[in-house]
Amino acid sequence: PMPENTAEDRTGKRRMRILEMNREAARFFHQCLVKGEDRRGLEYLANRGMDKKMIIRFGLGYAPDSWNALRDHLQQKGYSWEEMLDAALVIKGRNGSVYDTFRGRVIFPIIDLRGNVIGFGGRVLSSDKGPKYLNSSDTLAYKKSRNLFAMNFAKNAADKRLILCEGYMDTVSMHQAGFDNAVATLGTALTMRHIRVLAKHAPKKIVYLFDGDAAGQKAADRALAFIGESISDKNRNSVELLAVTLPSNQDPAEFVQAEGAQALEA
To answer: For helices 7-35 and 69-76, what crossing angle results, to 10°?
Structure first.
């Protein structure tokens, strides 16, 4: 007799469905960025000094400033509203309808070590459209506390240091400047899971790179306190931990654009 589907089987299928949807959503966002009529996403990236090669490498995208552009696209591809909610790509409204999670934002796909698109980060382009950065909610395929942005690239870097940045844009700018060992947390504070992942892929040195403003200095202080309290004796002896706070209130993207890669390396 054929075995009945177990709860584990059903969970696995739901997770695979989420990954399929995320990949389709990433394609949709990228096409909206490079071929859509709304050019604000491309203009923002150009103003930040981002070149076409990095846009393609990271699969950057743009979420149209519409309530249902992605929802309708995914529905045409055969996905139900319930599945979209499962993937946190839409939000349920008070009247029971659903609308897009990301609207009017530059999109940064989050990719795991196996190459799966597991979630998204979105940078707002208009100050009246909500928080500056919006991140996917946790799903069956995505946990903020376990993953790092750009680790899929950084794990293969020749430089076995890892440089931990505060944001997506900083990380992509670092890669453009030649620092392909840069990663970022996903809108959360450092966790022990992050430390374990970082130490696994950077057995010698981890550099925490913070903005030069007051908020960046506070973040650096919090990170160092967390590391001091929680890293194991084993890792303490083998991994060198450094924190760098940039000068002149600059973030990594601004600094490397103004001063260049050699100045940042120094």
So the answer is: 120
Instruction: Kindly report the number of other CB atoms within 10 A of residue 72's CB atom.
Output: 12
Query: Distance (Å, rounded) from C-alpha 114 to C-alpha 254?
Result: 31
Contact 59, 109 (CB under 8 A): yes
Q: Burial code of 138-151, b = ≥16 C-beta within 10 A, e = fewer?
A: ebbbbebeebbbbb
User: Quick one: CA dihedral 109, 24, 48, 137, positive or negative?
Assistant: negative
Q: Can you read off the two tokens belonging to residue 262?
A: 């050699």
Tokens coding 260: 């260049």
Burial group, residue 259, by CB count within 10 angstroms (0-12, 13-18, 19+): middle
CB 139 within 8 A of CB 122: no
- CA pair distance 38, 90, nearest whole angstrom: 21
Residue 142 gets the label, from left (phi > 0), alpha (psi -120 to 50) or beta, of beta
Nearest to 250 by CA among 201, 202, 207, 217: 217
pLDDT per residue rounded down to tens, the chain (266 residues): 776 667 777 888 999 999 999 999 999 999 999 999 999 999 999 999 999 999 999 999 999 999 999 999 999 999 999 999 999 999 999 888 999 999 999 999 999 999 999 999 999 998 777 888 999 999 999 999 889 999 999 999 988 899 999 889 999 999 999 999 999 999 887 777 888 888 888 878 889 898 878 887 887 788 777 776 655 565 455 677 888 888 888 888 889 889 999 999 99
d(CA 253, CA 242): 19
Give the tokens for residue 152: 């899929």
